[in-house]
Amino acid sequence: MARIGIKICGISDRASLDAAIGAGADHIGLVFFAKSPRNVGIEQAAALAHHAAGRAKIVGLFVDPDADFLNQLRQSVRLDVIQLHGKESPARVAQVMAAQGLPVWKAIGVRKTADLDAARAYQGVTRVLFDAKPPEGADLPGGTGLRIDWSLMAGYRHTIPWILAGGLDPRNVGEAIHATGADFVDVSSGVESAPGLKDAEKIAAFCEAVRAAG
Ligand SMILES: O=C(O)c1ccccc1NCC(=O)[C@H](O)[C@H](O)COP(=O)(O)O
């Protein structure tokens, strides 16, 4: 089996960034969403992206961003991937891909099989990221620690490369990989000691568990 991709999302300080890369994460998520405890400012993000250059890819995570914000941010922050984690339509996702000229990942909230089918509308996107669907009216659309019912994904025929997210942690990620066949996993709150505070030991344990499962 090829190496399983790992994204550690919601990094906001240099020590956690080094811990994630040192543990073997290949993608680092920077959250640009003011309501999130993981939100990073433009200067902070620029410094983190610069520090990670050549060692890991930087995924900028946005919730229904407007074009001005994306354009302004990209003047300062070097991104490798844009992750759209809001209610972006397939047409809006295609627009962002064309305008920004970067790989785009679209997050899809999953509670039932029909939610997996919803991903088919996003053909052409670089990857879809299946995350647990938060309850209606929740403050955050992601980084919630909620988990997908992995049995929905067993044997599912995907038509777009995908990533498994939602409630993963060092203890359950091996089982999640075996249950779903994921070849790319994403984690945020499962490697934190408090919301927004990454824990280097948990990051290392998570990456080790992914390697063991692969
Ligand atoms: O992490 C956030 O705070 C966040 C805020 C708004 C939109 C998305 C957000 N995170 C997206 C991610 O890619 C998370 O890694 C993913 O939702 C999994 O989170 P978790 O269940 O905490 O591992």
Automatic annotation (TrEMBL):
Gene3D superfamilies reported in the protein's UniProt record: Aldolase class I (3.20.20.70)
EC number: 5.3.1.24
Family annotation (InterPro entries): Aldolase_TIM, PRAI_dom, RibuloseP-bd_barrel, TrpF_fam
Gene Ontology MF term list: phosphoribosylanthranilate isomerase activity
Highest taxon listed in the record's lineage: Bacteria
Keywords: Amino-acid biosynthesis, Aromatic amino acid biosynthesis, Isomerase, Tryptophan biosynthesis
One Pfam short name: PRAI
HAMAP family recorded: PRAI (MF_00135)
Matching PANTHER family: N-(5'-PHOSPHORIBOSYL)ANTHRANILATE ISOMERASE
Protein name: N-(5'-phosphoribosyl)anthranilate isomerase
